[in-house]
Design brief:
This protein has eight helices and two strands; from the N terminus they run ββαααααααα.
């Protein structure tokens, strides 16, 4: 009677001992590369969320002023509160990125910003609008720094520079060469 032995594993790489030992390693590398682009895409969507919150309130401030019956100075304070919190949180967001990791920090920031956005949109009083805008500024303040950290951690140097520069390059060239600088 012939008994077949189970195959041994190469523990250094966690691969089966097969005729092509590096095929599993190549598949793992390809999976990590795909995952890097998925993580980058999620971070960029969070950055778009950040940009939306920068321009959404100034675009709708006339309606907010009419609905809440507030003056221009209060409306200016509501718009500025986002940037005050955002500016103050830039250094702590870098520390948070190192402490929690970029993916967790972006996830937590998006959650806080979503809560603030919901509170801002459903606020029956001006004080809750301030709280909502504060939470939005607090949440999105961690996104920008962590987008760069994700890019540095997940990509090689040449892919990193391409991923940062390429999205803006054609649009900025078109904008600069189609108009005079004073009209921009």
């Amino acid at each position: 009677m012939f008994i077949e032995r189970p195959r041994r594993r190469i523990w250094a790489f966690g691969l089966n001992s097969s005729p092509q030992p590096f095929s599993d390693l190549v598949q793992k590398i390809d999976r990590v590369k795909r995952l890097a682009w998925i993580v980058w895409l999620v971070a960029m969507i969070a950055q778009i969320f950040n940009m939306f919150h920068r321009i959404a309130v100034p675009a709708a401030i006339d309606r907010i002023m009419g609905d809440m019956k507030i003056t221009g100075s209060v409306a200016g304070n509501i718009m500025a509160l986002y940037f005050y919190v955002y500016a103050v949180m830039q250094f702590p967001s870098g520390v948070l990125a190192d402490f929690l990791g970029a993916r967790k920090a972006v996830s937590f920031g998006c959650f806080v910003a979503a809560l603030g956005s919901l509170l801002f949109g459903l606020a029956p009083s001006v004080s809750l609008i301030y709280v909502g805008r504060f939470l939005v500024g607090l949440g999105v303040s961690v996104i920008f720094v962590n987008v760069f950290k994700i890019g540095i951690e997940w990509f090689e140097d040449r892919k990193l520079t391409k991923s940062f520069a390429r999205p803006a390059q054609p649009k900025s060239k078109l904008l600069l060469f189609s108009r005079q600088w004073k009209s921009i």
